[in-house]
UniProtKB/TrEMBL annotation:
It is found in: Membrane. One of its GO terms (cellular component) is membrane. Keywords: Membrane, Transmembrane, Transmembrane helix. One of its GO terms (biological process) is lipid biosynthetic process. The chain crosses the membrane at residues 44-66, 87-110. It holds the Pfam family FA_hydroxylase. Coiled coil: none annotated. The keyword Membrane applies. The keyword Protein biosynthesis does not apply. This is Fatty acid hydroxylase domain-containing protein.
């Protein structure tokens, strides 16, 4: 009589752990419950939910009359569905495999959860690393003075939207997306140790990055309500005395309005889409260190802010 062998029990696979270790081994500090997807895929899914939810919110805001004064880059028409196929192609066929491979090779999304101190230290390190990688790629590769290279990388596809629709943050050619979105996110992540296997750190980084990019490309600048209004600004040349007076008016007495005007200021990346030689990494939430040090920041220096304010107002008027 044949011997009946009972079936082996199904053991859930914990993605992000050492696959050669016993199935019961869970790294110290790691979540004790598991999901049926790798952490990299979970993080990607969270980023997609945040990206498209906020993108649709900005799309809906375009139809709210009360917000038109903050829409400094007018949208020609509803662009969400027009831009969506290109954006989804980049997110699904470029970003998702890149993130998954980082986990497979143990470069990110693996290991124990971060200690609270390491968690806090990694946040500014990620911001700094993102800025460095993006500045180098954005300025010296995508905007390099090489006609063949620029045509091959097709960075012009991204600039064609004029940063007037939030979802255009990911509207670009696949290789451009890899250089401008994938590398500034995942290269610093691997350099700080991969972020561990704690979900909160990865979800926070991915979600915050998505929101920042959406706001930069939304065409909105919510700081307009907190900046000083200059009478007849942009209508005639200003004397040196008028410029000095305008400059002094920038020093707002209210701490709250000053903070909101600076925090919500979205002119850096919008200016980049108007003038391709400024603000290669300067933008919403960016430390703006390299653009400042290398003199490519959109307003270059405080002494020129009055002139920049005047030019910004003229462009806004001409929209």
């Amino acid at each position: 009589m044949a011997t009946v062998v009972p079936p082996l029990p199904l053991v859930p696979l914990h993605f992000g752990t050492n696959l050669t270790a016993p199935s019961s081994a869970v790294p110290s500090g790691r979540d004790t419950f598991s999901f049926p997807l790798p952490l990299s895929v979970q993080t990607w899914a969270v980023q997609m939910v945040v990206f498209h939810a906020v993108g649709l919110l900005f799309e809906a805001m375009d139809h709210v009359p009360a917000l038109r004064s903050s829409k400094v880059r007018a949208t020609r028409k509803s662009q969400y569905m027009h831009l969506l196929p290109n954006v989804l192609r980049n997110q699904i066929l470029v970003l998702l495999p890149f993130m998954f491979l980082m986990e497979v090779f143990g470069l990110a999304f693996v290991g124990p959860s971060l200690h609270p101190i390491r968690f806090l230290v990694n946040l500014p390190l990620m911001a700094l690393g993102h800025e460095i990688i993006q500045y180098v790629g954005h300025r010296y590769i995508l905007h390099a003075p090489n006609v063949f290279l620029m045509k091959f990388l097709r960075h012009s596809v991204h600039h064609s939207t004029r940063a007037s629709s939030a979802i255009s943050a990911c509207y670009m050619s696949p290789i451009d997306f890899f250089i401008e979105i994938g590398c500034p996110y995942l290269v610093p992540l691997s350099l700080v140790g991969g972020g561990g296997s704690g979900r909160f750190f990865h979800f926070l980084i991915a979600g915050a990055g998505a929101i920042g990019g959406l706001y930069e490309h939304s065409g909105y600048d919510f700081a307009v309500s907190f900046r000083p209004k200059f009478e007849n600004l942009g209508e005639k040349p200003m004397s040196e005395q008028e410029k000095e007076t305008a400059y002094k008016l920038l020093e707002r007495p209210s701490f709250v309005t000053t903070f909101l005007a600076d925090f919500l200021d979205n002119r850096a990346h919008l200016e980049h889409h108007m003038r391709g030689y400024v603000s290669f990494s300067d933008g919403f939430g960016s430390p703006s260190i390299l653009d400042t040090l290398l003199r490519t920041k959109w307003d270059l220096s405080d002494r020129r802010r009055a002139d920049v304010e005047r030019e910004w107002a003229r462009q806004h008027r001409d929209e």
